[in-house]
Amino acid sequence: MFDRFAWRYDFLNHLFSLHIDKLWRRKAVNELRGLSLEKVLDVATGTADMALTIQKYLQPEHITGFDISEGMLAIGRKKVEMKGLERQISLEYGDSEALPVEAQTFDAVTVAFGVRNFANLEKGLKEMYRVLKTGKKLVVLELSIPQNRFIRGIFNFYFFRIMPFVGRLISKDDYAYTYLPNSVQAFPNGTEFTEKMKICGFSEVKIRPLSFGIAAIYTGRKK
Asked: What domain range includes position 84?
């Protein structure tokens, strides 16, 4: 599915979020500020927006991005190449639930708008825990359902009515922008997700709601 509409993914992301997704990524990256970063892993990297944001604001020695969509990776690689960052950022095909890297490899792991797409959420979280070095940090940025009834009503109308209609017109994909709101609704956001992080071994788990609860940043450390 992501291969089919990869060519319109960035445009639609920025359009539907009114470019607030860029601010959310910067806030997520700020969770890593002040840490000693050599190797950073961006899981479900897609078109590399998160990897590029990390490089812009933190400049670690190297960022590795994994994704299972070759269509998304192809666009991400073009963006990396255009900025001359091929040495700093490498994008590779890889399953987030079976990462092809050794344990204790990375100083930080990030995921932006990707964990809700995991087939097995706990398996994906355990893989990220495995490849993190002891004491290092996971940062997850994900959409969520607002708790305020009024905000939730507006959000649901926009998310379930407006977005699928416009998304189908622009991406020419009948399923993609129906899948998106359904995946957000099915995702165990809020404290339900933080509990899963704890079950998978993470400590110092925190949640930071963004934009009235439309999105959230989740953080945790490897013990």
From this structure: 2-145+187-222
